[in-house]
Write a structure and sequence with these properties.
Layout: E1 14-15, E2 26-29, E3 34-41, E4 47-54, E5 57-62, E6 66-80, E7 86-90, E8 94-97, E9 102-118
Antiparallel strand pairs: 1-3, 2-5, 3-4, 4-9, 5-9, 6-7, 6-8, 6-9
Length: 123
């Protein structure tokens, strides 16, 4: 079992640059910096879960896999380019995003999330 709770130390994270061509990142504001850790699954698997952290700023990306996330710290807005819907998330909020969705992340306060991703053709 693995437990993730707001306020807990999530441990060591590695730098995750905004350089995945499939995600087609575009920085819109500031100089956001991301880090994370895959705790299970990932390359060669159809699912993965772990921790992701990002500093303030805004960027566009294409989501890689269906993902359910829960915010452990911070605050952000996520806007879906396809539907036009925008949601604001803070500690304890969860959100599901579909594989291939083009979204804008507007990180208002450094955000840490736990995530579970599923991609039928694998990561």
């Amino acid at each position: 079992m693995r437990r993730y709770r707001p306020g807990d130390d999530v441990g060591v994270l590695e730098h995750w640059p905004f350089d995945n061509p499939a995600s087609a990142y575009v920085i819109r504001r500031g100089a956001p910096s991301a880090s994370g850790r895959i705790d299970q699954g990932g390359p060669g698997h159809t699912s993965r879960f772990g921790i992701w952290r990002c500093t303030t700023g805004a960027f566009d990306c294409t989501e890689q896999g269906d993902e359910l996330m829960t915010v452990l710290s911070g605050r952000c807005r996520i806007s879906d380019h396809g539907s036009g819907e925008t949601v604001e998330l803070s500690v304890g909020d969860s959100l599901f995003i579909r594989d291939g969705s083009r979204v804008t992340w507007d990180v208002i306060e450094d955000v840490t999330k736990v995530f579970f991703g599923q991609k039928s053709d694998g990561y």
